[in-house]
Each structure stands twice: as C-alpha cells, then as structure tokens.
Design a protein that fits this description.
Number of strands: 0
CATH architecture: Up-down Bundle
Pfam family, one: DUF4439
Organism: Nocardia veterana
Structural class: mainly alpha
CATH superfamily: Ferritin, core subunit, four-helix bundle
Helix content: 55-70%
CATH topology: Ferritin
CATH class: Mainly Alpha
Order of helices and strands: HHHH
Number of helices: 4
Largest sheet: none
Low-confidence stretches: none
Protein name: Ferritin-like domain-containing protein
Radius of gyration: 15 Å
Shape: globular
Distance between the termini: 24 Å
Number of domains: 1
Strand content: under 5%
Length: 143
Amino acid sequence: MSTDQQALLDALNAEYSAVYAYGVIAAYASPERAKIVAEYTAAHRARRDATIDALKAAGASVPAPAAAYTPPFPVDDPIPAAKLAVTVESDTAVAWRSVVERATTADLRRTGIDALTECAGRLAAWQSILGVSPATVPFPGQP
C-alpha cells in the first residue's frame, strides 16, 4: 500500500467514526442544534464517500466501517454531545493534517487541506457553542 493510500485509509477510518458519532450527537444534542448537527453529519458523509472514491480510484481495497464505535465518554445530554462533537472534529482534523503531511501529490495535499479547513471550522463552531475561548487553535490537527 502506498503512503497516499495509507494516509487516505487513516482519514477514512476517522470519517467512519465521525459519521457514527454524529448519530450519537444527534440523539442528545439540544433541539436548537438540529440544523448544525444535520449539516455537519452530511459534511462528514460526503467526505467519507469522496475518500472511498479516491481509495477505489487508487486501486486500494476499502474496508467497511465497524459495526459500532465507542464514544470516549458517556453521552447522555446536550453538553457531552457537544463535547463529543469537539472530539470528533479534533480527531478528523488530526487525520486530515496527517494526509497533508504525508501526501505525495499536489491533488491529495489539496484534498487534505480542504478537509482540514472544514474540520477546523466545525471545531471552532462547537468550541464557541461550549463557550471555549478562544474557539480556534493556531494549528488545527496537531496531535
């Protein structure tokens, strides 16, 4: 497996986990967050699907997602749901930053930068919702 394929595979696994986690987030988020949760879920699904397409185009085999993913802490009301969203966006930012760092082509690097930028924006939105200040970090996706 090439470096690019491995980087994309790692990002795909992060996106699989994100899509699953947003289902949990949707179940417990405040009702007024329904629109943002739906928008961010759709964004992760689109990024997941594009990553699957890129892996297939590169001739890599694409694993199926796990049947379930365990949240890193209990989620049973809106605050933990928002904190899970922060974790999801942080984790996907790390995965996409890794794509940027490991990419061997300009096109893949651009894909990674676009995905990282999207994650950083969603992360800032959730941080703001939780009242974290500042809501952004200088270098998103740093492990």
